[in-house]
Amino acid sequence: VNLLQRYCKNGSEVFPVIVPSRFGLKTINFFLVKTGKSLSLIDAGLNNDSCLEALCRTLNENGLDIGDITQIIITHHHYDHAGLVNTIVSKNNVPVYASAEAIPRLKRDTIFMEMRVEFYARLYKEMGCGKLGEYQVAYLKNSLIKNKDQAIQTDIHEITGNMLLHFESIEMPGHAPDQLAFWDEDRGWLFSGDLLLEHISSNALVEPDFSGKRIHTLAQQENSLKNCLTLDAEIVFPGHGIIIDSPKSLIETRLERIEAKANKFHQLLEKGPATANDLAEIYYTKIYHEQFSLVMSEVISHLDYLEDQERVVKDCCNGIWTYSPV
Ligand SMILES: [Zn+2]
């Protein structure tokens, strides 16, 4: 990873903050964008020392410090994108912007968060997950208490229309229902959160909407990728991994992958009707136990996708859904 990249075009500069990460993400990326007197921070990494040090180092190398940041803009609510917001705001009380859907999640709003846990409790039961589902729900309940202090303390401004000086904000849901991309058309720069990653396809994580209804996240992800293709961006600045030049062919690969993976689940169902949990166990074997919630999310989002295309139907028996091919 080249830690000293910077981008400069038509009077704007991007200073990427790139923090090596374990696991499959390779790096945690967030971005300083300087245009005239404004210095935007797009995303805010993890709430840890290495992200804070990397931010300060990148600022210093460019003759800046935390006091020079003028606004923080969050692509989506995940904890590896908003981690340093409280720390930065405590040193420099700048406005923080995010989508309407992100705000209760970033604030860890009690009513919303409890509704979300109930959503997963119901979901895992309906999908035939049994004990593992119950363990996951217990873990989520515990996290509600444990992660309380991760809530963003300051007011978060809802991004509406084109209120962000130098960027157009574009809804790019799928990986997260609240995900926005920030588009600088003059320069061909797209700050895309986790919509498009170079080294892995980003998960369409299953989530409830505000009314507790399951969002068909993979269909959203597909639409967002198609939308991204039409922008014809020159450079995509992603939340993880390397910065992507000319993303067109990568987006096309990701779109093909969605179709190919959906076909694999469809083929498994052709061998006989199955619950989402059955499919997860068969398809993911060992990873099913190691990454239960991720794996269930993958299977369920693909089943919703196939159901929308009328390629599968589901049948309820004793409160558990069984899927079969059409
Ligand atoms: Zn994410």
Structure, described:
The chain has helices at 49-61, 85-91, 103-106, 110-126, 130-146, 217-231, 248-270, 276-284, 286-290, 292-308; strands spanning 7-9, 12-20, 27-35, 38-42, 71-73, 96-98, 156-158, 168-171, 180-184, 189-191, 235-237, 244-245, 312-317, 320-325. By secondary structure, the protein is an alpha/beta fold. The strands form 3 sheets. The protein has a 7-stranded mixed β-sheet with strand order 1-2-3-4-5-6-7. Strands 8-9-10-11-12 form a 5-stranded mixed β-sheet, with no helix packed on it. A two-stranded antiparallel sheet has the order 13-14. Helix 6 (217-231) runs antiparallel to helix 7 (248-270) and helix 7 crosses helix 10. The chain starts with 6 loop residues before the first strand and ends with a strand. The model has no long low-confidence stretch (mean pLDDT 95). Bound molecules: zinc ion. Zinc ion (ZN) is lined by residues 76, 78, 175-176, 194. Zinc ion (ZN) binds next to loops.
